[in-house]
Design goal:
This protein is α/β, with parallel strands linked by helices. The chain has helices at 4-18, 43-51, 55-69, 92-108, 135-153, 169-182, 195-203, 217-241, 252-257, 260-270, 308-322, 340-349, 386-393, 395-402, 415-421, 426-446, 465-475, 477-487, 491-510, 520-544; strands at 28-29, 39-41, 74-80, 84-89, 119-123, 157-164, 248-251, 274-277, 280-283, 294-297, 327-333, 357-362, 365-369, 372-374, 411-414. The protein contains 20 helices and 15 strands. The chain starts with a helix and ends in a 48-residue tail after the last helix. The protein binds one RNA strand through α2, β9, β10, α11 and β15.
Length: 592
RNA sequence: GCCCCUGUAGCUCAGUUGGAUAGAGCGGCUGCCUUCUAAGCAGCGGGCCGCAGGUUCGAGUCCUGCCGGGGGCGCCA
């Protein structure tokens, strides 16, 4: 596998050393403008001050030296601008890359082993089962899911987990609301007002509370748990539709019932980190950077229950010390910002290196409908549920919409605009490119055109700018995947996939693969280029959790696009292509 | 008051550890289907990258200060 950046970096180092110059942090970058070459380095600019010579002098010395070193594929070295050294490569570079892509296949290309088998738990969504998911849950859901796919591709052992908050006051409140509805009474202040509660109440066959006596605590909890189970099933089904998958659903009640909260607190106590203040049991989180100490167990006057933090720390003790994850990523909404400092402090108090805990806050998603903002309040029951949006625009469009921008960016979803533009969604742009690739392979088979083994094909015929642009796009995927995984930023993959689809459409338009006017040798080269583009798109689409459809007929475009559910089989689909032998089925392994 | 995120084209957003003349989609206008799907391609128009300083050979990107937007600072979860 030829990593051009490394090859060039090594050459630049060698060149500088042979000139007797110090070797700085050599940066090899891809210039934005084609006239600046395929790659460039700023080494001369960085060195200028240190050495006390004009940057262009250094650059031109370096350029002549590099010319004589004999770097593979290097066509020309030029000095430009304030002192850049620009590299222009021969097309052989990209033709060789094509072979690399085909050999590596979907499973092997752009799969840097960054995790080296370390375990990572990604916890996300974790919405309370007291009502349907809202759109914001969906956004962070596809984010967490995509992060899981990315890390998995990059050599981590990933566990995606939903923490089910199935205990405590919210469940009681849900039970109270349910029973009130069942008796035909209005839901009490602070209860859950949504229609789904009335709906559930009509189906609840629990204790008959139609008699005047008030329901007991047991009745309330039983009703609440019953309702939470039903709601959780709905949540699951919505997430399934969007291809947001979990390996584990972890019950908060199971933690509390197992006594883990008490165990965790006694662990703190043994370390001398606890004290009692006004009847409440406190944890010295200020010892670990928090702005104030936090309550673990409320005073008797306040009910004497454990706080949410105590449960959360027990849960994190479970993650790090019981299940032993090397790394934990918590994906929260920005409205949980207030708990970050105490959670991090508490984890450190457990004796865990806080660097192993990564808390990612997703900024808020707000909705508007043609300019009027739409409120989202679960308790009032006045909000747009995620499943409704999915019904309207389809899971694929919803999913990609949530993966185009960074989660650091607060977004406003204009429902009116999204509905009217869903047919123009970038997801179709990318999927259509894949469908075109599939169509080319279908037609090839229909016309009984053979696909010769790649080592017998004249890839040097691939010199059209469109062909080279497409290959250049493919060459960027490994670094895009690596950066996206490092920054936990799947939207970078989205940007790449759109870009690559664009390059493919351009190629498709200008470069006919098969036909009477096309030299058969060129057909062969282009067919392999199409195979490679398909591999790249499959990788990108799988990372984003989107289907790679073999056909998209415009007659099926109508107003309500019913996108097939995304591939549940996760990232690297096992569609390896044997480059030496038979023609591949471009869509193998990405079935629905 | 303090903490986190953020301000880029009419709208929604990209912009790779600071790189050369800032990009895409949508919307507007104009061309291109006898060929492997026009859900496509090509072109035109659209910008004081919130403002002001600073660091640097070089700042949309880093630092400081203002201005604007969102979120958070519970014995709630």
């Amino acid at each position: 596998m030829s990593d051009m950046r490394q090859v060039l970096a090594a050459a630049v180092c060698e060149g500088l050393e042979s000139l007797g110059l110090p070797v700085p942090d050599v940066q090899i970058e891809r210039p934005a403008r084609p006239e600046h070459g395929d790659w460039s380095t700023n080494a001369a600019l960085v060195l200028a001050r240190q050495v006390g010579r004009p940057p262009r002098d250094i650059a031109s010395d370096l350029a002549t030296r590099l010319d004589s070193i004999g770097v593979p594929h290097l066509d020309r070295v030029e000095v430009a601008g304030p002192g850049f050294v620009n590299f222009r490569l021969a097309p052989t570079w990209l033709q060789e890359l094509l072979v690399d892509v085909v050999h590596a296949g979907v499973a092997g290309y752009a799969a840097p082993d960054l995790g080296r088998g370390a375990t990572v738990q990604v916890e996300f969504v974790s919405a309370n089962p007291t009502g349907p998911l809202h759109v914001g849950n969906g956004w962070l859901g596809s984010y967490g899911d995509a992060v899981g796919r990315l890390l998995q591709r990059c050599g981590w052992q990933v566990t995606r987990e939903y923490y089910v908050n199935d205990t405590g006051g919210q469940i009681r409140s849900l039970g109270t609301s349910l029973l009130a509805r069942r008796r035909g009474e209005s839901v009490p202040e602070g209860g859950y007002q949504g229609d789904y509660v009335a709906d559930l109440a009509s189906r609840y066959s629990g204790p008959d509370t139609s008699y005047p006596a008030p329901p007991s605590q047991d009745d309330v909890v039983a009703a609440g748990r019953w309702a939470a189970d039903r709601i959780l099933a709905q949540i699951r089904s919505t997430l399934d539709r969007m291809g947001i998958l979990f390996d584990s659903w972890y019950s908060q009640a199971s933690i509390e019932d197992g006594g883990a909260v008490a165990d965790t607190i006694s662990l703190f106590d043994h370390k001398g980190l606890c004290y009692v203040d006004q009847g409440a049991l406190m944890l010295r989180t200020t010892d670990f950077g928090d702005s104030r100490d936090r309550v673990l167990r409320k005073s008797e006057a306040n009910g004497g229950d454990y706080t949410y933090l105590a449960g959360d720390l027990a849960y994190h003790r479970n993650k790090f010390l019981v299940r032993g994850f090397d790394r934990v990523i918590d994906v929260f909404g920005a409205d949980h910002h207030g708990q970050v400092a105490s959670l991090k402090a508490g984890v450190e108090a457990l004796g865990v290196d806080p660097g192993r805990l990564d808390i990612r806050l997703g900024q808020m998603v707000s909705l508007s409908d043609g300019g009027d903002s739409v409120m989202m309040s679960k308790r009032s029951g006045n909000f747009v549920p995620l499943h409704q949006l999915v019904d309207q625009i389809g899971p694929g469009v919803t999913r990609l919409l949530s993966l185009v921008s960074s989660i650091d960016q607060a977004t406003t979803v204009d429902l009116a605009a999204v509905r009217s533009q869903s047919a123009d969604s970038p997801v179709y742009y990318v999927q259509y490119a894949y469908a075109r690739i599939s169509a080319i392979h279908r037609v090839r088979q229909q016309r009984s055109i053979p696909l010769d083994p790649i080592h017998t094909v004249q890839l040097s015929l691939l010199t059209h700018q469109r062909e080279l642009d497409l290959l250049s796009g493919l060459s960027q995927l490994p670094e895009v995947v690596a950066v996206a995984a490092r920054e936990l930023a799947p939207h970078r993959v989205t940007a790449w996939a759109r870009e690559l689809a664009g390059r493919f459409h351009g190629f498709y338009h200008d470069c006919r693969v098969m036909g009477d006017n096309v030299d058969p040798a060129l057909t062969q080269a282009r067919l392999w280029l199409v195979v490679a583009a398909g591999i790249g798109l499959q990788i990108g689409l799988a990372l984003l959790g989107l289907a790679a459809p073999e056909t998209m007929l415009s007659s099926e475009l109508p107003e309500a696009p019913a996108t097939a559910p995304p591939d549940p089989a996760l990232a690297p689909a096992p569609a390896s292509v044997d480059p030496a032998a038979a023609p591949p089925d471009p869509a193998a392994g990405t079935a629905e």
